[in-house]
Design a protein that fits this description.
Blueprint (H helix, E strand, L loop, with lengths): L2 E4 L4 E4 L3 E2 L12 H13 L4 E3 L8 H11 L7 E6 L12 H15 L6 E5 L3 H4 L2 H12 L6 E4 L3 H8 L4 E7 L11 H8 L2 E5 L22 H4 L17 H12 L8 H10 L6 E2 L6 H9 L8 H19 L4
Parallel strand pairs: 3-4, 4-5, 5-6, 6-7, 7-8, 8-9, 9-10
Antiparallel strand pairs: 1-2
This protein binds NADP nicotinamide-adenine-dinucleotide phosphate.
The site of NADP nicotinamide-adenine-dinucleotide phosphate has 30 residues, from α11.
């Protein structure tokens, strides 16, 4: 598996990592056995980068990863966690005292003295604009609670503000064939600054696998049921902010762009991997089969310019009007 560097961490990771929101909650039931199988299939396929958060299953995802890695000391996996969404997202909550308490809890859950990477978990824009917040993050590094920090953002404007901070090691943002705006300014700015880019929601919450129809029903405990219109958190996190019927129709067209022998999901991942400036793409998986197939997508040949152009055309015709002005 190709590996790329987080320059400011001095570490390399696989170009396809693993998103582990599914191992916490909000995606219907994923048993502990299934979660361990997902982790196993990932590392066996060359994945050495996991993305988690303190809020996924209120720590379940972090604890499963911690237990898993403690039992396999031979593995060298970079674990990125996130903090800040176990409380209301108010700027006054982003204090050094809270950062210490939140990272202490993640250190316990993950069973490590020092976190590899902690990301602010989609904070309000005012938090990214606060010098005190970044001073506090620098303090966490100085205290060796974390090796580095990054910011996960919703919008391109927030991304540019986070990239401008000299200590930001990583930026996490949504990028997929239904979300092209970060290609315009965010990826070039990150590359120029030496900030690693973590691509989340690369399958538009599964839409880009082409498996769903307008009649597909998701579990009640799945955000694809309860957050379609942003009822619980930012609408952009569910189906990438695209209305479900529009997304299903656009996914049918996207599937036609897959090279012979490649699935629609693998094509979407390969598309994200080859965008300049991307460090790692972190699809979520609910089964070992998905995790293994996603890792294998890194090995597909690069998509030709004709396919990249067809993706831009599909985006412009079917999706742009719903998402481009929002995020
Ligand atoms: N605010 C934030 O910072 C934030 C927000 C969102 C996500 N994230 C991170 O980003 C990661 C990825 O985003 P995501 O999980 O929301 O969305 P995603 O990766 O776009 O979609 C994941 C879903 O795609 C389907 N899928 C995965 N692999 C597949 C395959 N090989 N074939 C067919 N279908 C496949 C599965 O759907 P089914 O369940 O239908 O099988 C899976 O649950 C998360 O796990 C999390 O770590 C961070």
């Amino acid at each position: 598996m190709e590996r790329r560097a987080f320059d400011r961490l001095g570490r390399q990771v696989s170009v396809v990592g693993l998103g582990t929101w599914q191992l916490g909650g909000d995606w219907g039931e994923v048993s502990e056995d299934a979660a361990r199988e997902v982790l196993d299939a990932s590392v066996e396929s060359g994945v050495d980068f996991f993305d988690t958060a303190d809020v996924y299953g209120d720590g379940r995802s972090e604890r499963l990863i911690g237990d898993y890695l403690r039992a396999r000391p031979e593995l060298d996996v970079l674990v990125a966690t996130k903090m800040g969404r176990r409380v209301e997202q108010l700027p006054e909550h982003y204090t050094l005292a809270n950062f210490r308490a939140w990272t202490d809890r993640s250190r316990t859950n993950l069973g490590v003295d020092r976190l590899d990477l902690v990301q602010l978990h989609c904070p309000p824009a005012a938090v990214i604009d606060s010098d005190e917040v970044f001073d506090a993050l620098d303090t966490l590094v100085a205290e060796e609670r974390v090796a580095g920090y990054g910011v996960s953002v919703e919008s391109c404007d927030e991304a540019l503000a986070a990239i401008a901070r000299p200590g930001t090691a990583s930026l996490q943002i949504i990028l997929n064939p239904f979300r092209l705006k970060p290609l315009e300014r965010v990826l070039p700015a990150a590359a120029a600054a030496g900030v690693g880019v973590i691509v989340r929601v690369p399958l538009a919450s599964g839409l880009l696998s082409g498996r769903y129809t307008v009649d597909t029903v998701f579990a009640e405990s799945d955000h694809r049921t309860y957050n379609r219109h942003g009822e619980a958190f930012d609408q952009g996190e569910t189906f990438s902010g695209v209305d479900f019927a529009t997304g299903v129709a656009a996914a049918v067209e996207f599937a036609e762009l897959a090279p012979e022998g490649a699935t629609s999901a693998a094509t979407a991942l390969r598309w994200a991997v080859q965008q300049p400036g991307v460090t790692s793409v972190i699809p979520g998986a609910r089964s070992a089969e998905q995790a293994g197939a996603n890792a294998a997508a890194a090995g597909l040949p690069a998509l030709p310019e004709s396919t990249l152009a067809a993706v831009r055309d599909l985006y412009d015709r079917r999706v742009r009007a719903q998402v481009h002005h929002r995020w």
